[in-house]
Amino acid sequence: MTRPMLLAIQLAEQAKGRTAPNPCVGAVLTKGGITAAVGWHKGPGLPHAEVEALSQARDKGWDLTELTLWVTLEPCNHHGRTPPCTQAVIDAGIPRVVIGTLDPNPDVAGGGAKRLKEHGVQVEIGEEEQACLDLIADFRAWALESRPLVRLKLAATLDGRIAARGGHSAWVTGEQARQRVQDMRAASQAVLVGGGTMRADNPRLTNRSVHGGRQPLAVVLTTRLPNVGEDLFVVRERPGELVILTSLQQAESEAASKLCSRGVRIFGLAGDKSGGLDVRSGLHRLYTDLGCTEILCEGGGRLGMELMQAGLADELHLVLAPKVLGDEGGVSVASGRRVQSMDQALGWRLISHEQVGSDLWLVYRPA
């Protein structure tokens, strides 16, 4: 990976989770092999990465007309909370700009690069493009699909089982991996499970991270609403933080009215082509109505497969425990499809791997 762009990506990642609705962006100014200045976008309304880097270079006394700008995302060419970065680059006299990836919004993609070229700036596009696209996976979900970024977490034995045949799943992984899941909950606005997981495991879906943080919403996707008096933690203890995604018919039922009277929010969803619920529209409601920009799905193999098949799982966190059940009746890490050949398998790219305690933590993104 090109060193200046790698540095720009690392800078941008420092603001992950704090820039919504804007993307994470990093910028580096160089002269020859020397880094002159750096910048990254830290949050809405604050200076963009390019402007930060230009300001730092001026403060250090660099001649900006001799510098190359490396930026992970195409400089903006429109007025928002801040002026367009293209104008700042042009006014600074920067002669060369290297861009990781164009703006994903088809209405503006290429506009910033075009304007720079029109003003005599040498523009290069596509430097470490895949890494720069991965950096803004959340922004692409928000801007292009009006939905949250979805992280799917699945914990399994080495033979791919997330629970024994009777449904027992505590605990597949070790304490350190479980603590990391709590940190992921703290970084999310919602935790999503299916109705089967809600009833089988009776989860709290709370953030119990040692680092603190906000409490995520508990979101349950189910075609069978729970009763108000059912002994389920999220219904009994968290009704004001519980959101249920269900069918349009169930959303109009008496059971729904009773749950709503307790503070539960219920979103009715239309059916999809396979006879299930339109999960995409549910994610859209979580984003537009409740402001959820990142959610964590811990819903098990069937819901996980549903998200993967619909192209809604942006990251797959697969945690492998050094255990083997050896029981073909155990619950599979993914289920719900019928395929005839390996050509029909869904492809993933390995992004990172790490040993966490005794477990192996693998992170994938769609191929």
Which descriptors would you attach to this protein?
367 residues, alpha/beta, 9-stranded mixed β-sheet, 5-stranded mixed β-sheet, 13 helices
The amount of beta strand, in percent, is 25-35%
Largest sheet: 9 strands, mixed
- What is the averaged pLDDT score? 93
Helix proportion of residues, in percent? 25-40%
Helix and strand succession?
Answer: HEEHEHEHEHHEEHEHEHEHHEHEHEEEE
Structural account:
There is one protein chain. By secondary structure, this protein is α/β, with parallel strands linked by helices. The chain contains 13 helices and 16 strands. It has helices at residues 3-13, 49-59, 85-92, 111-118, 129-135, 137-145, 175-186, 195-201, 233-237, 248-251, 254-261, 279-290, 300-309; strands spanning 26-31, 34-40, 68-73, 96-101, 122-125, 149-157, 161-163, 190-194, 217-221, 242-247, 265-269, 294-297, 315-321, 331-332, 348-356, 359-366. Helix 3 (85-92) runs parallel beside helix 4 (111-118). The relative contact order is 0.12.
Secondary structure elements and pairings:
Blueprint: H1 3-13, E1 26-31, E2 34-40, H2 49-59, E3 68-73, H3 85-92, E4 96-101, H4 111-118, E5 122-125, H5 129-135, H6 137-145, E6 149-157, E7 161-163, H7 175-186, E8 190-194, H8 195-201, E9 217-221, H9 233-237, E10 242-247, H10 248-251, H11 254-261, E11 265-269, H12 279-290, E12 294-297, H13 300-309, E13 315-321, E14 331-332, E15 348-356, E16 359-366
Parallel strand pairs: 3-4, 4-5, 6-12, 6-13, 8-9, 8-12, 9-10, 10-11
Antiparallel strand pairs: 1-2, 1-3, 7-14, 13-16, 15-16
Helix pairs in contact: 3-4
